[in-house]
Write a structure and sequence with these properties.
Chain lengths: ~160, ~120
């Protein structure tokens, strides 16, 4: 998988989190996984379709998800991961994916995104496409770590034409 | 009388956020649609002064819903409010009759400026 597919998602995540909660996340070390796999408690799964296709998963602990939702709700306490908190976290994934796809368009890759799905539970293996995943952790102050799993490949038709 | 607004977004979080911004500034949120099909139905029932429209939604997306609403009422005021900011999407929405295009995440002032300008008349 090309690193140029990952860069927009890191930039998109940083920019969305900055705008949403006025805090600049710190970027951790990039690592690779042979398959899409997440051991996080809360995962937002976003499908990417178009010139580049696959999935991006934003994973975090339940505590991080609750803290992030609370910040997104203007400081309103989120003692448990209820419907509103889940919706905030899903929308976080949607906004990051949307902004990242806009950045991909600047590299001449036209893509669309699917509505986000939340998967709760640890040790989840998501293997609809057999593409290795690149993982970037982002540390958000007072919130916790959000792991971005990017598993994308160029669509076949486009690859052949290129 | 307060201007009447219909909110369209599949995310509860976004509907709550938009509703807070709008109601705290004197607008009346008359309906909340969770997808494009609901927005089209609620538009014909409620005849709001303005519609906020997400794009990425299940059932019917926001571009299709925009086209359907404009087909039923060419004077409809619809503003897009979406995470998808790429040029082709903006162009398609504006060509289909959207009056403004707000990229999420947004500052409340961006929404109020857009809504205020369109509903001033």
């Amino acid at each position: 998988m090309k690193v140029e597919y990952v860069t927009p998602f890191v930039a998109g995540s940083v920019s969305v989190i900055q705008t949403l909660i006025n805090s600049t996340p710190e970027r951790g070390k990039l690592s690779a996984r042979p398959q899409m796999f997440t051991s996080q408690q809360v995962n937002i799964v976003c499908g990417i379709t178009g010139d580049i296709e696959g999935q991006v998963i934003y994973g975090m602990s339940l505590l991080t998800a609750n803290r992030m939702a609370s910040k997104m709700l203007g400081g309103q306490p989120v003692p448990q991961f209820d419907q509103l908190a889940a919706s905030a976290i899903a929308e976080l994934g949607n906004m990051i994916s949307g902004n990242s796809v806009t950045l991909l368009a600047q590299q001449s890759y036209t893509c669309d995104i699917t509505p986000p799905t939340i998967v709760k539970g640890s040790n989840v293996k998501i293997s609809t496409l057999d593409i290795p995943a690149l993982v970037i952790p982002l540390v958000v102050a007072d919130v916790g770590e959000i792991e971005i799993n990017v598993s994308l490949q160029q669509r076949k038709a486009k690859a052949e034409a290129a | 009388m307060a201007k009447r607004i219909l909110i369209t977004d599949d995310a509860l979080f976004m509907r709550v956020t938009l509703k807070n911004i709008l109601t705290q500034n004197g607008y009346e949120v008359v309906g909340e649609a969770q997808n494009g099909a609901e927005a089209v139905k609620l538009y014909s029932e409620l005849k709001p002064d303005l519609v906020t429209m997400d794009i990425t939604m299940p059932e019917m997306d926001g571009i299709e819903a925009l086209k359907a609403i404009k087909a039923s009422d060419s004077g409809a005021t619809v503003i897009m409010c979406t995470a998808m900011g790429q040029k082709n999407m903006v162009v398609e929405a504006i060509q289909a009759g959207a009056k403004d295009f707000i990229v999420k995440p947004f500052q409340p002032d961006r929404v109020l400026e857009a809504v205020g300008k369109l509903l001033a008349a």
